[in-house]
Amino acid sequence: MNTEPKDSPLPATEPAPQNTRRQVRLPLLLALALCCGILLGSNPFKPSDQNPDGTARGYLKFKEILSYVDRDYVDSVNAEELSDYAISRMLERLDPHSVFIPAKQQQQASSFLQSDFDGVGVEFNIFHDTVTVVSPLSGGPAEQAGLQPGDKILAVNGARVSGMHTTTEQMFNKLRGTRGSTVLLQIIRRGMSRAMNVQVTRNRIPNSSVDVAYMVDNQTGYIKVSRFATGTYDEFKAALGDLRRQGLTRLVLDLRGNPGGYLDRATKMADEFIGGTKKIVYTDGKGDQYDTQTYSRVAGEFEEGPLVVLVDEGSASAAEVVAGALQDQDRALVIGRRTFGKGLVQQPITLNDGSELRLTIARYYTPSGRSIQKSYRGGLEAYEQDLKNRQQHGEFFHADSIHFADSLRYRTAHGRTVYGGGGIMPDVFVPRDTMAFSAYYTRLQSHNLVRKFALDYVQAHKTELEALRFEQFSQGFRISDAQLQQLVAQGTQEGVAADATGLRRCSGLLRGQLKALIARSAYGKSAYFQVLNEEDAEMQQALRVVNDGSSTLMNGLSMK
After folding, report:
1. Helix axes 79-92, 52-72, angle to 10 degrees
2. How confident is the model at residue 237, as a pLDDT?
């Protein structure tokens, strides 16, 4: 027996009310249209005058379908989640960077660009499902409470976190909280037979975006900027001023892996290097509303002197704006590999429920007219595979694997040739270190064995390391063959099979990583970067260039 519902014909003796459904729905549609008009009218970002009727029809259609699904679908549904999903998929049709952030994720998404947070101030890692302190922040609540590198956190406020498959995000949520509140940590320390409780009072923790600033030699400074957050420019200005007082006359600015952030912080940083009134960046959007041009306007801290900018495929957005401006104005040489190619401007729009729409409103262009944005015509999936494709095509290893059409050729202020087409192409190409692609090295890292070995070493040799100044450690400490074999043995115990060929290939990289991680726990973040830079090919190339201001590479640049 067929039980599907069917439209039943009305009895012949009864007149068919053919207009009933229309008469009922028409007022509803008119009411919805009125509501739509009110909503759109109250929205400061009004639809384009080109197609207001299409926008209204689309709004009504979506609302009508969502209502039917919520009311009549065979199973219960979460209408809000469906709406969020539909919005996200709609934005994917626009470009890769227009996104919708639900209210429950908005705070976490915004925290990346904040320069501080409330918490205990501890860097941790998770080894074998055990939360282990890598380093307490110097002067922070955790250090003041007595936490040390290597301490294992067993419980937070009585809730076990060890052996519970605790994620990094879950630990962040447990350790962060309102300033002045307390958190009780149960820890076990090397050499102790019993766990102990430590009470930590949360405080404001700086979330620095200038990772490190130090003098490489008597004249050459190095500054690494990891992102452009709320406090980045102030941090950078203070760091540059401090290095100038130490005698800085030439600088390496490291923007590798910097994903961007606030544009105005980036342009202020560029202004510190560019003298006079020169263009830094311009944007072009629909109509004139979002068209802007930004020029240098202040007397900067370092407008003359050799300057090199380090970039790689992880440098994006605001980082590309800085690199592109300094390159186009012939103020700096850019060294490394082609940058990511993110040149779309997003406007954050807070919605009524606390969620956020980040809508692309314009494109970034360098002073010479190059668009920073790479193509996304192939769709989101192809766009997300771009870096993988670059690697497969050899771009990370060979400069001649990159080909530009003549139409993408541009000229800098002094006539040097640069290319558009997505990302910033460096003046000096440095290939990626192929040792990083050792499968054995990758397996060791994926099991967190390199970090664990370094932390265990610091705990076992704490007295010896405390007796050494960092300068002594930097010059005299070496990872021996015997220590590498100890790492191999630990890997075997953890299911990472020994690989003699793989070890030979990545031994130099492992020695540098282990030494840097030991320095991080024993001497702090600055020590970590100094050790890494001693062996880093891009950094060494940058130093060779910046220290030779008379080289042909520097010819034509506005340096004195």
Report:
1. 140
2. 97
The whole-angstrom separation of Cα 87 and Cα 227 is 28
Chain CA centroid to CA 478, Å: 32
Q: What band does 292 get if pLDDT is binned at 50, 70 and 90?
A: very high
pLDDT digits (tens, 9 = 90+) for 419-453: 888 899 999 999 887 766 688 998 998 888 999 99
Q: Tell me the Ramachandran region of residue 244: left when phi exceeds 0, alpha when psi lies from -120 to 50, beta otherwise.
A: alpha
Instruction: Please say if the pLDDT value at position 559 is more than 60.
Output: no
**Residue 485's pLDDT band (boundaries 50, 70, 90)?**
very high
Residues 340, 260 contacting (CB under 8 angstroms): no
- Give the C-alpha separation, 179 to 201, whole Å: 8
Gap between the Cα atoms of 551 and 333, Å rounded: 12
CATH-assigned architecture of domain 210-429: Alpha-Beta Complex (3.90)
Contact 161, 131 (CB under 8 A): yes
Domain edges within the chain: 116-206, 210-429, 439-455+469-544
Give 101: exposed, middle or buried? Use CB within 10 Å, 0-12, 13-18, 19+.
buried
The separation between the first and the last C-alpha atoms of the chain, rounded to the nearest angstrom, is: 93
Catalytic residue annotation: 317, 328, 342
Indicate the SS3 state at residue 258.
coil
The reply to whether 116-206 and 210-429 are identical in fold is no
Q: How far apart are CA 370 and CA 432, in angstroms?
A: 25
Q: Residue 52 is encoded by which pair of tokens?
A: 């207001």
Residue 346 backbone class (left: φ over 0; alpha: ψ -120 to 50; beta: rest): beta
Q: Is the pLDDT of residue 535 over 70?
A: yes
CB atoms < 10 A from the CB of 91, how many? 19
Distance of CA 98 to the CA centre of its chain: 16
CA dist 405 and 127 (Å) reads: 49
- Homologous superfamily (CATH) of 116-206 is PDZ domain (2.30.42.10)
CA distances from 477 to 216, 482, 508 (A): 18, 14, 14
Distance from C-alpha of 335 to C-alpha of 7, rounded to nearest angstrom: 72
Is the pLDDT assigned to residue 201 strictly greater than 50? yes
Span 44-73, pLDDT tens digits = 446 567 778 888 888 889 899 999 999 999
Average pLDDT over residues 87-104: 90
Q: Is residue 2's pLDDT more than 50? A: no
